[in-house]
């Protein structure tokens, strides 16, 4: 467990208060339920007394909640940015064998308990002499849960399998790929004469955490029934419409009455036989009492479970600094519209330490890896304080959302960075909820500090 000077006890207390409020228990009734001494509940909820396991166990026993609901997250990034040096990555290096032969060398890079990243530096130890997908030297995995963004360095062959079809894509430095969960894949080097490795940046996105736990309880048939395919087909929107009709116990006749659409047309749209036009979508959304966006399926550009971006045809553009001079050359790396809140970028740092690049700020969690052999100076601002560090070659970092950062070249060179930005659990739904709470709501949401009513009245 990490050190507890990070507000853990205070956040645990706030969760306990929040849960008791949800269950409409004041201090006295909470004490009775939890078997606590009279007058002590408050010392737990204000973080004075740490929640012990016995209290959490008792709460999960007598209240309809899970132990996890009372366990807050650790803050292991109290300065806004946390660095992992190359030597620390190397210290944790381990070689894993497949079929009795060394296959990969893995090294952890920067991770945080705040974000779902599991980013690994992985060296290919198996050399192959061809680009055949069925080369018997290639050891495939079984696929894994986490989404994987991969950045290639050196002569690496990428192998991927989807619906039984296997293929091999020869990659060069700067190429990248984004892949869907549970698709088997592998990597091998085309030569051992030069370095061949990848940055395998896996992350859970919205899949790990609460959704996985909920579905694990709901079971297989619910998980299959809840899965929504993503195709350009009108049947996908029809499935969304039918979900809302089920939710509201609606008939096509009632929906037609609400929207003014002809009965027969409504039935065709609900059945997915024909696509809805923009005006019809607006009417259907109105009739269902939802927003148009709730009826629109996402788009994907994946082919065979992956989206590949070769460096040779990647989009590149310059980002000017405060003095108008180019501060960064940005290259767009692999991604997919299915994950609109994931952005993978290669950043060439053009400004020296004397330059004034504009701070880069994003709502996303951010991962940084220093590519090449040139270090970079990173400056950032967090909680009113200014910080700076030099990230040497092979270093990586995690940056919290909304932290402004700048990168400059301390040696006047042109350092190159890999950035992978991802969303956490704060989805647009949650952001809209925060933006529509009553005054003071967001502050109480993250740290509930009071009973939901006043004992004294008003
Ligand atoms: Fe993988």
Keywords:
binds fe (iii) ion; 4 domains; seven-stranded antiparallel beta sheet; 434 Repressor (Amino-terminal Domain); globular; 26% helix; 13 helices; 458 residues
Description:
The chain has helices at 8-22, 27-34, 41-45, 53-62, 86-91, 210-218, 220-226, 234-247, 252-259, 263-271, 278-288, 428-436, 441-446, and strands at 81-84, 94-98, 101-108, 117-124, 147-153, 156-162, 165-171, 176-179, 185-189, 197-203, 306-309, 316-320, 326-332, 343-349, 365-371, 376-382, 385-391, 396-399, 405-408, 416-422. The chain is of the alpha+beta class. The chain folds into 4 domains: 6-74 and 427-446, 434 Repressor (Amino-terminal Domain) (Orthogonal Bundle); 82-203, Jelly Rolls (Sandwich); 231-295, 434 Repressor (Amino-terminal Domain) (Orthogonal Bundle), CATH 1.10.260; 306-422, Jelly Rolls, CATH 2.60.120.10. The chain starts with 7 loop residues before the first helix and ends in a 12-residue tail after the last helix. Bound molecules: fe (iii) ion (FE). The site of fe (iii) ion has 4 residues, from loops.
């Amino acid at each position: 467990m990490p050190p507890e000077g990070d507000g853990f006890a205070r956040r645990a207390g706030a969760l306990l208060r929040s849960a008791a409020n949800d269950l409409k228990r004041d201090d006295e009734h909470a004490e009775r339920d939890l078997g606590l001494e009279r007058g002590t509940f408050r010392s737990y909820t204000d973080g004075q007394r740490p929640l012990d396991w016995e209290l959490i166990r008792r709460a999960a026993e007598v209240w309809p909640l899970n132990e996890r609901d009372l366990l807050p997250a650790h803050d292991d990034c109290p300065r806004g940015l946390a660095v992992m040096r190359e030597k620390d990555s190397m210290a944790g290096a381990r070689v894993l064998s497949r079929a009795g032969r060394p296959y990969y060398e893995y090294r952890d890079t920067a991770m945080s308990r705040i974000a779902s990243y599991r980013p690994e530096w992985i060296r290919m130890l198996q050399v192959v002499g061809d680009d055949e997908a069925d080369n018997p030297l290639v050891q495939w995995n079984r696929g894994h849960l986490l989404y994987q963004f991969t950045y290639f360095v050196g002569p690496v062959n990428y192998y991927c399998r989807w619906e039984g079809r296997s293929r091999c894509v020869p990659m060069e430095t700067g190429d990248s790929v984004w892949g869907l969960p549970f698709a088997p894949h592998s990597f091998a080097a085309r030569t051992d004469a030069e370095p061949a490795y990848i940055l395998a940046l896996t992350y859970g996105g919205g899949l790990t955490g609460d959704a996985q736990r909920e579905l694990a309880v709901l079971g297989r048939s619910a998980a299959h029934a809840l899965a929504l395919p993503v195709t350009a087909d009108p049947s996908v929107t029809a499935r969304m419409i039918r979900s809302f009709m089920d939710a509201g116990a609606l008939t096509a006749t009632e929906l037609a009455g609400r929207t003014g659409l002809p009965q027969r047309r409504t039935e065709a749209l609900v059945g997915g036989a024909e696509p809805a036009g923009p005006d019809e979508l607006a009417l259907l959304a109105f009739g269902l009492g939802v927003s148009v966006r709730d009826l629109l399926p996402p788009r994907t550009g994946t082919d065979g479970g992956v989206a590949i971006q070769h460096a040779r045809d990647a989009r590149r553009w310059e980002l000017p600094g405060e003095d108008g001079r180019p501060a960064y050359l940005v290259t767009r790396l692999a991604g997919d519209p299915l994950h609109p809140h994931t952005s993978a970028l290669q950043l060439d740092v053009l400004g020296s330490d004397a330059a004034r690049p504009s701070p880069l700020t994003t709502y996303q969690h951010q991962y940084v890896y220093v590519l090449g052999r040139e270090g970079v100076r990173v400056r950032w601002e967090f909680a009113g304080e200014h910080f700076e560090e030099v990230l040497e070659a092979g270093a990586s970092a995690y940056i919290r959302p909304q932290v402004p950062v700048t990168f400059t070249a301390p040696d006047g060179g042109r350092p190159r960075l890999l950035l992978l930005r991802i969303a956490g659990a704060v989805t647009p739904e949650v952001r809209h909820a925060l933006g529509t709470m009553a005054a003071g709501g967001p502050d109480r949401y993250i740290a509930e500090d009071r009973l939901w009513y006043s004992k004294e009245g008003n």
